[in-house]
Design brief:
Layout (H helix, E strand, L loop, with lengths): L1 E7 L4 H4 L13 H16 L6 E4 L3 H13 L7 E3 L16 H8 L1 H9 L36 H16 L8 E6 L1 H12 L17 E5 L5 E6 L3 H12 L4
Parallel strand pairs: 1-4, 2-3, 2-4
Antiparallel strand pairs: 1-5, 5-6
Helix pairs in contact: 2-3, 4-5, 6-7
């Protein structure tokens, strides 16, 4: 049996402040760090072991992975970082309060920007300081590949070459892999693995710092998927993820 475990980063400062983060590099809150350590404890208690790990270029995902591996005494395993695992780019919405944005544009429009498959927010201006081409960590990425805004479809198109060619392909040589990333990049992965429709993906919410396990046979055919942890607690976290606070 082969396993890939997905984990969304713990609560970030901008999760707490109800702001669109996207590619903005915000840190975890103290609660987010605690969530990540708890996830590591749960994985260890349930007998998980990882040979390889992947994460994005953003601090909240990197730190979550570090906390999980620390709790599991797996700090030594290879970790690969790649910008293609970054969160969906929210364009001109980045930094704005979600509740205030919903009051201005209406909750349905904000839902479309946050959850829909092919609706992207207004893009950044090319000279906007938030443009990733001004960030040193992306200096080796062609400017034409760096987004100024993304829909989930755009995020999947950006992510899938790396997911298929590097992460999923690693299951040929490894039995258990951990991927720490973001709500929308992981929604894209789950959509692909489970064949979720463009319409139904709107209702998929991934809770912070809850290990999401995908098990495959030796031919890499999906056998089952499940969260690790208390079912009621996970349900509450999924519901809170879907809300836009006023």
């Amino acid at each position: 049996m082969k396993r890939i475990v997905l984990i969304r980063h713990g609560e970030s400062v901008w999760n707490r402040e109800n702001r669109f983060a996207g590619w903005t590099d915000v840190d975890l809150t103290a609660e987010g760090v605690a969530e990540a350590y708890k996830a590591g404890d749960q994985l260890l208690e349930n007998g998980f072991f990882f040979e390889l790990a992947f994460t994005s270029y953003l601090k909240r995902a990197v730190k979550t992975l570090d906390c999980v591996l620390d709790r599991m005494n797996l700090d030594w395993i290879p970790v690969e970082k790649n910008w293609r695992l970054n969160e969906k780019h929210y364009g001109a919405l980045q930094g704005l309060n979600k509740g205030q944005t919903a009051e201005k544009y209406g909750p349905q429009q904000v839902l479309m920007w946050r959850r829909s498959y092919d609706v992207a927010p207004e893009p950044l201006n090319a000279e906007d300081p938030r443009n990733p081409r001004f960030d040193v960590r992306y200096k080796d990425v062609p400017t034409s590949e760096l987004p100024l805004s993304e829909s989930l479809k755009d995020t999947i198109d950006r992510l899938m070459p790396y997911w298929t060619g590097r992460i999923f392909a690693s299951l040929r040589d490894h039995d258990s892999i951990l991927v720490a990333a973001h709500g929308n990049s992981l929604r894209g992965v789950v959509k692909t693995l489970k064949g979720i429709s463009d319409e139904d993906i709107v209702s998929l919410n991934i809770p912070t710092a809850v290990p999401y396990v995908f098990e495959f046979d030796d031919d890499l055919i999906l056998l089952k998927d499940y969260y690790v942890g208390d079912a009621e607690e996970i349900k509450k976290k999924i519901n809170s993820t879907s809300e836009v606070r006023k």
